[in-house]
Write a structure and sequence with these properties.
InterPro entries: DNA/RNA_pol_sf, RNase_H-like_dom_plant, RNaseH-like_sf, RNaseH_domain, RNaseH_sf, RT_dom
Pfam family, one: RVT_1
GO molecular function: nucleic acid binding; RNA-DNA hybrid ribonuclease activity
Radius of gyration: 34 Å
Protein name: LINE-1 retrotransposable element O protein
Strand content: 5-15%
Distance between the termini: 98 Å
Organism: Sesamum radiatum (Black benniseed)
Length: 782
């Protein structure tokens, strides 16, 4: 590690850092967002790289390089106190490139120095690891109603965590963790050379040189804070080794856990007795004095196992000086424990979705705008919860109902829902709008947790769940078990789905059973179809391989299998070396599970096969529509037209069961097409012709009153014809005198006759109907 961290920084590292930055991040005192550097990199590359490498490799710090603006973001509505603002640091982008280069070099080594009880910012670890562990331990506490041992869970809140970090403490921690002195020197230069100015109402005030703290907004700060909190983990770990603070094990054989940390969120688990609580207080006090971190006891709380006597709970809570609660409501934004009503448990998600929808004025959004809002905001809200919990189907239906109402309705006024929501959740290439089917998405996210348990068996959450629910079996053979937690029941519900997409990649063949395991490249079962005539249950695939040449043993294959199986087995490539067998995800190109591929598999399993809009011959049409370079609302209109869900008279009649609705354009019994669009296109061509001919006085007559209303009115219009109407008005402004007139078809028989004649034409025509002369003569006579 030390040798790698001391290597000189390169131009490639700097380039990688800048192009991994979000383009529209708020700029600092330089006033230049990252997109400026992306766009003009070829021009400024040499100067920028030279400046940054001089800083990283030679510690040359240009004037103003580390200046930082502080802006105050309100934490609540109508803030009146300074504590109700969150200070955000806006650094110069050039400095952030340097800082991000250091962070990128540091990240690969975090897994080596950060203990398993921390999950924040460490590559390969997820926030959901801590959520699952905390939920499992809280479930253990809640279900422990008997026994002489009592346990407690402390949820601690660290006040102003980043702002209170002492710089000498950070420097000593980096040294204790084994980082080289030159790398520590560079980090401390980044931390200590900062100068702050405050931005209020767009004006920059003052210049402050701090003596402690890390900046929120510096790419390096999260990793430095993680390294600082590792010292707290070390204190608890040493106490656990000495059996001073034993920790909590959810079952016999499970690892004991005394603490979980994620950024500034801390949970402590220990037996509930005064001696151990005093040791916890001592550790927190040592950490406070060394690091500067303060525990916010007002926001901290204690929860005890159900078998703990009431007076013991009160005494220990008072000893710590924190609140006593029956349960922790949330941990890392998700429920920390579950009780009877799962629907009530996640009711806050529905409230958040409703508030987001109400926060937008639906009247100002077209259907295309609403679709974007649903995909990027509304359907993202429950995703975090769905990665750990199987949400009730009735709640998912309510989420979908809110989205459907928002999409189709006009504000608070209900409108016709022209198509079922499930059909809108299909792929755009299959006639849908690509909205997420939340039930399928929930299943795919839970399957990801199972995949992590299989592929990362040494991580802490895998060891705990295996010890609790399947200590002597493979995960695919695990059962729900007795008194399971809600998280485990949620995860195990995706087991059969995950199994349906997994198969074994043959290496040595020693781990794969010929008859029971999925290893044949044939969907959907991936299993042998030949009957086990010899009744050899424990035959392994290694018995089918000639170990000397690493080839399939054709004689054995001919003896045991039907031709269909033999052909597929011989297509499986064998490595020249005896590698371990590997379980792979069949539906991705690299064999690694992905939520995207799992979602599409789940969606195909849930969708009825072969509707008329999923045909292969329509796939090219859908592709052309969605890739066409036109406004999104035009694409949505085209989608509705092909789906036949435009608000035409015939469709309204079917939906609302009206008796008579005719088309005003062609007098047919039903209005079956976009008549106003046809009228708008005709008017556009007429006005184009008049402009080309340089006409000075123009009268345009039409019988479509709705189109004329749009031309005459100046009110906001988000309909599909609004771009055409705007174009008509623009062209009309180029003519000296132009007037649009409403004339019934009976008053313009010639135009009506030409329109009816053109409907039946397959191409262009210069021949006019013979009766046109008679109509013209009659009109001139009148």
């Amino acid at each position: 590690m030390a040798e790698a961290l001391q290597q000189p920084f390169s131009e490639d590292e700097v380039t990688k850092a800048i192009f991994h930055m979000a383009p529209l991040k708020s700029p600092g005192p330089d006033g230049l967002p990252p997109i400026f550097f992306h766009k003009f990199w070829n021009v400024i590359k040499h100067d920028v790289v030279t400046c940054i490498l001089n800083f990283l490799n030679h510690r040359i710090l240009p004037s103003g390089f580390n200046d930082t603006n502080i802006v105050l973001i309100p934490k609540c509505k109508n803030p009146t106190l300074l504590q109700q603002f969150r200070p955000i640091s806006l650094c110069n982008v050039v400095y952030k490139i340097a800082s991000k280069s250091i962070a990128n070099r540091l990240k690969p080594w975090l897994d080596c120095v950060i203990s398993p009880s921390q999950s924040a910012f460490v590559p390969g670890r997820l926030i959901t690891d801590n959520v699952l562990l905390a939920f499992e331990i809280n479930h253990f506490l809640n279900t422990r109603t008997k026994g002489g041992k009592h346990f407690m869970n402390l949820k601690l809140d660290i006040s102003k965590a980043y702002d209170r970090v002492e710089w000498p403490f950070l420097q000593r921690v980096l040294g204790k963790l084994g980082f080289p002195s030159s790398f520590i020197e560079l980090i401390m230069l980044c931390v200590s050379s900062v100068k702050y100015s405050f931005v209020l109402n767009g004006i920059r005030f003052g210049s402050i040189t701090p003596q402690r703290g890390l900046r929120q907004g510096d790419p390096l700060s999260p990793y430095l804070f993680l390294l600082c909190t590792e010292s707290l983990c070390s204190l608890f770990r040493n106490a656990e080794v000495k059996d001073v603070i034993p920790g909590v094990a959810v079952c016999r054989g499970a690892p004991k856990i005394s603490h979980l940390l994620f950024a500034d969120g801390t949970m402590v688990f220990c037996p509930a007795n005064p001696e151990i609580v005093n040791q916890v207080r001592r550790i927190l006090e040592v950490y406070r004095k060394a690091s500067g971190q303060e525990i916010n006891f007002v926001k901290s709380s204690a929860v005890f196992s159900r078998n703990t006597p009431g007076d013991t709970k009160t005494v220990l809570a008072e000893l710590l000086g924190i609140r006593l609660e029956n349960k922790h409501d949330l941990y890392l934004g998700l429920p920390a424990a579950a009780f009877r009503s799962k629907r009530a448990l996640f009711a806050s998600l529905k409230d958040r979705i409703w508030k987001r929808i109400q926060g937008w004025h639906e009247k100002t959004l077209s259907l295309a705008g609403k679709a974007t809002l649903i995909q990027s905001v509304v359907q993202v809200i429950p995703a975090y919860a769905m990665s750990c919990f199987r949400l009730p189907k009735i709640l998912l239906k309510e989420f979908q109902s809110l989205s459907a109402d928002f999409f189709w309705n006009d504000g608070d006024r209900p409108r016709i829902h022209w198509i079922e929501w499930d059909k809108m959740c299909t792929s755009k290439l299959k006639g849908g709008l690509g909205f997420r089917n939340l039930e399928a998405f929930n299943l795919a996210l839970l399957a990801k947790q199972l995949w992590r348990l299989i592929t990362r068996p040494q991580c802490l959450v895998s060891r705990v769940l295996k010890a609790r629910y399947f200590p002597r079996h493979h995960l695919f053979e695990a059962q729900v078990g007795t008194r399971p937690s809600f998280t485990w029941r949620s995860i195990i519900a995706a087991r059969d789905f995950l199994k349906s997409g997994c198969r074994w990649r043959i290496g040595s063949g020693h781990s794969v059973n010929v008859w029971k395991d999925p290893w044949i490249p044939r969907k959907p079962s991936f299993r042998i179809i030949t009957p086990n005539a010899a009744n050899v249950q424990n035959l392994q695939v290694s018995a089918l391989i000639r170990q000397d040449s690493r080839e399939w043993d054709v004689e054995v294959l001919n003896t045991l299998f039907w031709p269909e199986d033999r052909e597929l087995i011989q297509q499986i490539p064998l490595s020249s070396f005896s590698e371990p067998d590997l379980l792979i995800w069949y539906y991705s190109n690299n064999g690694i599970f992905s939520v995207r591929s799992a979602y599409h598999l789940a969606l195909s399993d849930m969708s009825p096969a072969g509707t008329s809009f999923e045909r292969l011959d329509l796939k090219k049409l859908w592709k052309n529509i969605w890739q066409c370079k036109v406004p999104n609302k035009v694409k949505i209109f085209s989608w509705r037209a092909i789906r036949n869900i435009l608000p035409t008279g015939g469709n309204i009649k079917k939906k609302l069961r009206f008796s008579e609705i005719g088309c005003p354009f062609c007098d047919s019994e039903e209005e079956t097409g976009p008549a106003i669009l046809a009228e708008a296109l005709a008017a556009r061509e007429a006005i184009r012709y008049a402009v080309r001919q340089e006409c000075r006085t123009v009268f345009i007559e039409g019988d479509c009153s709705s189109l004329l209303d749009k031309i005459f009115e100046d009110r906001p219009d988000h309909s599909v014809v609004s771009p055409i109407v705007f174009y008509i008005k623009t062209l009309a402004s180029q003519i000296q005198f132009v007037k649009f007139l409403f004339v019934r078809r009976s008053g313009n028989a010639v135009a009506d006759k030409l329109a009816r004649f053109a409907v039946n034409l397959e191409g262009d025509s210069s021949n006019f109907p013979p009766e046109l002369n008679t109509l013209l003569t009659g009109e001139f006579a009148n």
